[in-house]
Design goal:
The complex is a heterodimer.
Chain A (H helix, E strand, L loop, with lengths): L7 E4 L6 E2 L5 E4 L12 E5 L12 E2 L4 E6 L10 E3 L2 E3 L3 E2 L5 E8 L2 E3 L5 E10 L2 E14 L5 E8 L6 E9 L4 E3 L9 E6 L4
Chain B lengths: L2 E4 L1 E2 L7 E4 L21 E5 L4 E4 L5 E2 L4 E5 L4 E2 L2 E2 L5 E8 L2 E2 L6 E10 L2 E9 L7 E2 L2 E8 L6 E9 L5 E3 L10 E8 L1
Antiparallel strand pairs in B: 4-7, 4-18, 5-17, 6-16, 8-9, 9-16, 10-15, 10-18, 11-14, 11-17, 12-13, 12-16
Classes of the chains: A mainly beta, B mainly beta.
Chain lengths: 195, 185
């Protein structure tokens, strides 16, 4: 491998500079270095049903990681240290500063039928709610799947985001539905290039 | 500051790897510089005309027919088959119309990977029915860049067991759409 040390690359003439040809691979600033990547990124889902208390905002216990590039998502129920950052349970704390696209959805249902009247999903940055997807019905229904998304700035040192769900039912046992192959309740994020 | 002026940078070997920088370095595109293919392959398409006559309680492939963007010609025949391996952000919404008022019991929107659902947006109103609901789904998923493909499906359980429809472009608004782009390896 040849290495060239330089601070700037400009087109020799004109206004186009091309790097590589079809089939080549271009790596941009490995791990935390480059701004021209969409990492860190993760996507996690409920692999099985979660049973929160009725009418209680509850952290989504998303243990099923489809992937976690950068190792910034804590898929356990305890606070852990990832990349030197203390990360609360089921939270994402990227170690690269930037703007992140975050999304979450919760599938709210109850044992029995036709007894859900309200459900919402919220994204929190640290301890503050920053986005909400809400469905509030005058009638009892069976399944509601509110979703929400947001672009938020995270400092790469201590900021974390968490997804929480809420459901109100008239009878039976409230559940956030999960599945091992099909994402029904999920939480994901990626860093916006260049930010 | 050193500056290289050239028009093309290639790895030493064909199909090799060029690495720019190390951990902690920053690469900046000069002010006003355009990056021509970041996040490619990418596509975005929507349903132009409503897809009608869909069978009750049966998952139907949504025949997205109007392309807004398809950078690498990876979207064809209602499926997205990216030709570059990597992680892709995919998103979709279908306006599920039960045709008649108080006829919409249950409906779901799915993204399929290789013929199987990987994500589900579900609203089940059962006895307290409406007419239209537009579930939205999004997912980040791996694609192998050769054979993996993605399709949009949806279904509605109507109260009268009649047909339902996916609403197309109406009143200058996109109602049903499917998009995606590569976010990295």
């Amino acid at each position: 491998m040849a290495t060239l040390f330089v601070d700037k690359i400009d087109p020799q003439s004109g206004t186009t500079l091309e790097i590589g040809s079809s089939g080549d691979t271009l790596n941009l600033g490995a791990t935390a270095g480059g701004t021209l990547t969409n990492t860190p990124t993760f996507f996690a889902k409920l692999n099985s049903d979660q049973f929160p208390s009725n009418s209680t905002l509850t952290t989504l216990a998303l243990t099923g990681e489809n992937f976690d590039v950068g190792g910034c998502y804590n898929n356990t129920g305890s606070t852990v240290t990832l990349n030197g950052i203390s990360v609360p349970a089921y939270s994402f704390a990227p170690n690269v500063a930037g703007k992140y696209y975050i999304s979450a959805k919760v599938n709210v249902n109850a044992t029995g039928s036709d007894n859900v009247s309200r459900a919402y999903v919220q994204l929190f940055k640290n301890t503050d709610a920053i986005a909400t997807g809400d469905f509030n019905s005058s009638y009892q229904v069976d399944i509601i799947t509110p979703g929400t998304d947001v672009v938020v700035e995270l400092n790469g040192t201590s900021d974390y985001v968490t997804a929480k769900g809420y459901g109100t039912i008239s009878s039976g046992t409230l559940r956030f539905k999960g599945d091992t192959t099909e994402a029904r309740t999920y939480f994901g994020a990626y860093r916006l290039i260049g930010s | 500051m050193g500056t290289i002026k050239t028009t093309n940078i290639e790895p030493i070997a064909d199909n090799g790897t060029v690495t720019l920088g190390s951990s902690g370095d920053t690469f900046t595109l000069g002010s006003g510089v355009k990056q021509s293919n970041m996040l490619y392959p990418a596509f975005y398409a929507y349903l132009g005309s409503s897809q009608t006559g869909l069978s009750d309680n049966t998952a139907a492939k949504i025949t997205i027919d109007t392309e807004v963007l398809d950078t690498d010609n990876c979207f064809a025949s209602n499926k997205f088959t990216p030709t570059t391996a990597g992680k892709y952000f995919l998103y979709a919404s279908v306006n599920l119309d039960a045709v008649d008022a108080t006829n919409w019991r249950n409906g779901q929107v799915y993204i399929y990977k290789n013929g199987s659902s990987i994500i589900n947006g579900d609203f089940n109103l059962v006895e307290n029915m409406g007419r239209r609901v537009s579930p939205y789904v999004s997912v980040v998923v791996d694609a192998n860049g050769s054979s993996d493909y993605f399709e949009l499906y949806a279904e509605v359980d109507t109260n009268n067991s009649g047909n339902w429809q996916a609403t197309g472009y109406t009143s200058s608004q996109i109602r049903t759409y499917f998009g995606g782009y590569r976010i990295g390896s």
